[in-house]
Amino acid sequence: MKMKKVTAFIMTAALGASILAGCGSGSEKQVVIYSNADDEAVEAMKETLDANGYEGKYLFQTFGTSELGGKLLAEGKNIEADMVTMSSFYLDSAQEQNNMFQDLTFDYDTLTEFPAFYAPITSQEGAILLNTEMLSENKLDRPESLKDLTKPEYKDLLSVTDIKSSSTAWLLMQALVSEYGEDGAKDVLKGIYENAGAHIESSGSAPLKKIRAGEVAVGFGLRHQAVADKKDGLPVDYVDPKEGNFSLTESVAVVDKKDANPLAMEMAQCIVEKGRSELIKTYPNPIYQGEEADPENVSTYPKVFSEKLTVSLLERHQELSEECK
């Protein structure tokens, strides 16, 4: 869920690996894959493709969410990529504007309904993050809600992300707007920004990194990352805010090109059918029929925003955020 551009992963290797059963056979033309995924998801997808006979048959390049979203909206079918993994709301907006994706040709059975032109690969929820040692040292209460983060006791001990640079922050914004309305959300967000001060970050992972390092006591970020840190014995914990655990999905789509590479659809199918078993280890929210979440990974207040998530809604919430700084 990162927005800043990261180093591109370029995979080039000798061709000729045999394609395993279920993932098909294909030409020697490399599939260009564009993705906004975090490093953990990128590695899981690459490992899945390589293990199923596609090593050397693709070029994988990562971008920040806003950068890749801008390319999708501006370039449409002329984009270099054959396949995209991307925040689902951006795929919806790009398809509505440019009609640029093929309907997927393979079957998949999700828990909720998704459009025919993409299949979800991860689902990520937000939560309040804690450094337990710093809470104790500073004699701080554990917050129970996002509104609690406006309390004076958290001044300069709070880290959050700017929604203009990270979609992770949209999880916080959705919770505030859903619970308090836009005017009420502004009041809460102004208090949060005031307490965060210099710790308003441009990266979605920055608050957790500062939590880990003991630079702040409280933050907001991705729930599954805090769950993993706590399991690893770090002084990290998490709180499901009473306003709700909102989520964003990332999905795979195939660009509808005149000279479409048939391997792109095969690789999309391979990621969905073969990769979920690895992806769900890091991103534990069930997406497909038959998947079950570890009980300790189930959030307390899962919620869905009342409006459809679109780029225009994101921009509206970005403007709201700017008014609060």
Automatic annotation (TrEMBL):
Q: Which UniProt keywords apply?
A: Signal
Task: Tell me which domain of life the UniProt entry assigns to the organism this sequence originates from.
Answer: Bacteria
Give the organism, scientific name.
Answer: Blautia hominis
Coiled coil residues, start to end: none
Q: What's the short name of a Pfam family annotated to this entry? A: SBP_bac_6
Entry-linked Gene3D superfamilies: Periplasmic binding protein-like II
Q: What is this protein called?
A: 2-aminoethylphosphonate ABC transporter substrate-binding protein
Give the signal peptide range: 1-21
